[in-house]
Amino acid sequence: MLDFEIKSILGEKYKNGFFEKASSLSNILHKEGILVFNSFISPVGLIKIQKEAAILKPNSFKSSSEYNVYVSDYDDNFPPESPRNRIMSTTKKCIPNDLIPKGSILQKLYDSSYLKNFFCELLSKDNLYPYEDSLSSININYYDKGDALGWHFDNSDFTITLLVKNCIKGGIYEFFNDIRYKDGKEDYAFVERILNNEVYGTKVDSFEGDLMIFKGNKSIHQVTAVEEGERILVTFNYNEKMGVSLSEKSRKTFFGRI
Questions:
Q1: Is the N end or the C end of the chain the one with fewer CB atoms within 10 Å?
Q2: pLDDT, tens digit, for every residue of 169-188?
């Protein structure tokens, strides 16, 4: 059962019986590559999380990272202008898990066995575990004017995010579902069309308090630059195995330390 404190911050339709729908929702996620749970957090809960995020922001680490769409090493078998090697970029500020108070609503949401069981059934996983390192399980990401997330495929099988604060203009999530492979091989030709702005993906209208789950390892995605205001996004990061740490390179890039 949901404990009282977690239940009190969830949106109305998630308080009773909704999580029993995981099996049917799993089919939608598999087909469409994304699920958006509108108003997952209640207005009261959202205010608490926004205040917490605002207090923590001065301690955030500002990062700027460059990578290719596949978030992998440069491949000499392809020219620099190939979609395999073209450079994307991301800029943001980030709070790592060890700076989030143990009594935080975010930590309680992440640790909730009821929610975790729902995610497991939804994603067809036997279990989900936190990262072994102290930085990577929950992250609060701040996108100010000019900050953006460039096109890429995720390495993980799934991503779970909570939009805490929406910017006034910009910051649009856009994706192409299940387009990574063609005839069992990387579809570089279609990715090139995406990077050349010859085709446009599905844009998601996100609202404060929405929880989103998507399968980013097969669906290329980006978040356009923030043009006005501030965008705050929390990522809940789980692993299928115990004892997994985020790579030292990634920790150094996103948190400034390991």
A1: N
A2: 999 999 999 999 999 999 99
| Per-residue pLDDT tens digits for 106-161 | 999 999 999 999 999 999 999 999 999 999 999 999 999 999 999 999 988 899 99
CATH class of the domain at 4-255: mainly beta
All structural domains of the chain with their residue ranges: 4-255
User: pLDDT digits over 226-249, tens only?
Assistant: 999 999 999 999 999 999 999 999
